[in-house]
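ok trying again, last paste got cut off:
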Amino acid sequence: MSIGWWVRLVCKVLDVVAVGEWLTLWGQVIKPGTRPLSALEIEEARKVLGESVPYPQVRVDEHSLLAWVGALFRLIIQRRFRHLGVVIAYTVNFTRRIHPAPGNEDMAWLIHELVHVAQMEHVGLQYYPEALAAQFCSGYDYGGCQALADGRPLAFFNREQQGEIARDFYRCLYHSPQRAPYYRRQIGDLRLGHV
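nice, full thing came through this time. structure:
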C-alpha cells in the first residue's frame, strides 16, 4: 500500500469524527476577527461554484497568522514572496485584507480558495494533503483552454489546478466571455461537486 492510501485513510477517519467542522468552530473561537462571506461574495461565487459550497459555514480570516506562516515558508523555499490564501476546512485565511468586487482579482482569488472549500465539502480533509502535494509537484498550471478542450473531467486535474480553472473561468465571465465555453465541462463538474 502506498503512502497516499494511508494519508487518505487517516483523512477519512478525521472526517468521521468531524475534525473539519471542529477546526472551523475552534477557529471562530480563537480568532474572533473572522467574518462570514458577504452577500456580494456569495453572489459572485455562485456564478462559478453554484451550490457546491456551504456558504453559511464559510469564514474568512484576513491578516491570518497561518497564511503568513505559509507565505514565509514559500519565501524560504522558492525565494520569492507573494500574498497567500490557505484554506483549513471551511475557513479561508489570507495574508492581507481582500477587496472583492465583481470581476476583480481579489474576487478571482477568493473563487480559487472557495474551490478548496468545495473540495472539503465533497471529498473531506484529504483535499488538504493533495493540495499541498500539488504545490510541490505539478503545480497550478493546468495548460489553459487547450488542455480543457478535450473534455477531461475536473477530477483529472490536481487540487490547485482545479482552483485555477475556476479562477480563470471567473475572469472569462468578465474579461473574455468568448473563452468561457472551453470551461463548460469542468465548471459543470465543480457545480456538481465532482472534484
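cool. The chain has a mean pLDDT of 89. The first helix runs from residue 3 to 16.
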